[in-house]
Design goal:
The chain has 519 residues and is an alpha+beta fold. It has helices spanning 43-47, 306-321, 339-342, 348-360, 396-406, 425-436, 454-464, and strands at 2-5, 8-12, 16-22, 28-35, 93-96, 107-115, 134-142, 147-156, 161-170, 176-188, 194-201, 204-212, 216-221, 234-238, 249-255, 260-266, 272-278, 285-287, 292-294, 297-303, 335-337, 365-368, 410-413, 450-451, 476-477, 489-494, 502-507, 517-518.
């Protein structure tokens, strides 16, 4: 539920409240995010107590203007922030203007509350198939430069989730450069929050790290072009002493697979700022007059029931508002993968023997792993050469599929298109260029920068399944700059029946729970 009584806003889920107000200067002051507040009909009376009171600007801070000598943007909790007007903490937005200035001053212009959630133009995001989600769009404007900043809030009441994103519009006559645009900002009136992040490496993901910050800054970021196993974009913030079942805990997860950035900073005034979004390192985006740029969606959860309470809210949200398609409610099959049993040394006889043993053990899905294509006998050759090896599979893909199906099992294939061996580069690029012609320019709701035509892939796959060819998903770049190329790990699960139906499952690489979709 979203309530607005200017200058106050209150966003309620079943158990939480998120509140902010418009200050006299037109900035958005963050008031509260935590346990649900029972407000009366008059929001001003209920929420005014949360607003900070300032008799003078402290110490050597910069006052905002001469009309408000008691007000400094460095010593107030904000919904968004920028450089040049006194706030020296982590900024929400950073823009290089045509005159060389980095100063931005976005102030309140209007707000609109609507029902339902439209899809993002360029990015994946959450959804609500029942259109019950409430949406608040707060429009801020930098009058000096003609730029408009939209702050979007989505309230998923039953899941206790509030999602945020931002969109920048250039309504000026000059091109500007975006150096940073975050997805969310949370300012707390406390320090000593415990920041939990997850790091690791290939096959060693999600190593938990807890940092209790009393001053300075802590950064969790990825600079590999992906969300990566090295650094996960999911962060937990908790009060000192929080455990699995008690204590105030916040969870923030970014729906984005590229370079991400999460930073927690403690000011000299005992306040903590947290921001999350696209990594600003080496980031620069020209925004021409009339153009827009949108930031990824950030999912926020609060629970007073510790890490476990927060996790349960996040899990409910992912199941209901991230996972899509056939497999949203369907029980996943128990599967047996050929890799550990055979590695590259596979052939039809070995695979069928393994599948038969799996069936007797209660397996429901048999997955043929690496080694079935080209001269793939080790990890140095043929990756990217997707022609079936006829010595290993004399009946081609359709032959092994039908025989496994006859055992009463579904059949799966392993394929890894985000890597390739040097001897396969020329061949895979020729395949890519050929297959890309069958793809439409329909924007993918799943991967930023990629256009995927599901129907074209489906038809192409069905047509070629009966031959000794692997159905391939043709990917084409949809980036407006043409500089970005994204690859995905495609796991193709084939269910060969009387109709030769094919079900295709796309999963991001590396695996990221908030960006998983079943087509």
């Amino acid at each position: 539920m979203i309530r607005e009584q200017y200058p106050f806003f209150q966003l309620d889920t079943e158990h939480t409240s998120y509140c902010f107000r418009v200050t006299e200067t037109g900035h958005l002051e963050h008031l509260h995010y935590g346990r649900k507040i029972t407000s009366g009909e008059n929001l001003t009376e209920s929420l005014a107590i949360f607003a900070e009171k300032h008799a003078f600007a402290p110490g050597n801070t910069n006052v905002y203007d001469k009309e408000h000598p008691e007000f400094s943007l460095e010593d107030i909790r904000l919904e968004m922030s920028s450089y040049g007007k006194g706030d020296i903490r982590e900024p929400f937005v950073e823009i290089l203007h045509g005159d060389g200035s980095f100063t931005s001053d976005f102030r309140y212009e209007k707000a609109e509350i609507t029902k339902g959630k439209a899809e993002f133009q360029t990015l994946p995001g959450s959804y609500d198939e029942n259109d019950e989600v409430e949406h608040l769009c707060v429009t801020l404007k930098d009058a000096a430069y003609g730029l408009v900043l939209e702050l979007h809030y989505y309230v998923y009441e039953k899941c206790d989730v509030i999602a945020r994103s931002a969109r920048l519009l250039n309504e000026s006559d000059e091109t500007v450069q975006i150096k940073r645009l975050m997805s969310t900002q949370l300012d707390f009136d406390m320090e000593t929050l415990v920041c939990t992040t997850f790091h690791g490496a290939w096959a060693r993901e999600m190593k938990r790290t807890d940092v209790c910050l009393h001053g300075g800054k802590y950064v969790n970021e990825s600079y590999t072009g992906t969300s990566s196993s090295r650094t996960n974009p999911f962060v937990m913030l908790a009060e000192t002493g929080t455990n699995e079942d008690s204590g105030a805990c916040y969870g923030i997860n970014l729906i984005y697979r590229g370079n991400h950035y999460e930073a927690m900073e403690v000011s000299g005034y005992g306040e903590t700022r947290f921001v999350a979004g696209i990594n600003p390192q080496s980031f620069s985006r020209q925004l021409e007059p009339g153009a827009t740029f949108e930031a990824p969606e950030a999912v926020m959860v609060y629970s007073p029931l510790g890490y476990n309470g927060m996790s349960q809210c996040m899990h409910r949200f992912v199941r209901e508002h991230i996972v899509r398609g056939t497999w949203k409610k369907k029980t996943r099959p128990v599967l047996l993968n050929s890799w550990e049993a055979s590695y590259f040394d596979i052939n039809e006889r070995k695979l069928l023997a393994l599948a038969k043993a799996g069936k007797e053990a209660g397996i429901e899905l048999f997955v043929m792993d690496d080694g079935w294509f080209g001269e793939r006998n080790d990890d140095k050759h043929s990756l990217g050469d997707w022609d079936v090896n006829p010595k290993k599979l004399p009946g081609g893909l359709s032959g092994i599929c039908e025989k496994v199906k006859a055992l009463g099992l579904s059949f799966g294939i392993w394929v890894e298109p985000e890597l390739n061996s040097s001897n396969a580069v020329r061949k895979i690029m020729l395949q890519f260029l050929s297959l890309s012609r069958i793809c439409s320019a329909a924007s993918s709701p799943f991967i930023p920068g990629i256009s995927i035509s599901s129907s074209a892939i489906w038809q192409f796959s069905a047509k070629n399944c009966s031959t000794a060819s692997l159905p391939l998903a043709a990917l084409t770049t949809a980036s407006s700059s043409g500089k970005y190329f994204w690859m995905v790990l495609v796991t193709i699960i084939l269910s060969i029946g009387s109709s030769s139906a094919i079900s295709t499952r796309f999963m991001s690489y590396p695996p990221f729970p908030l960006c998983m979709e079943y087509l």
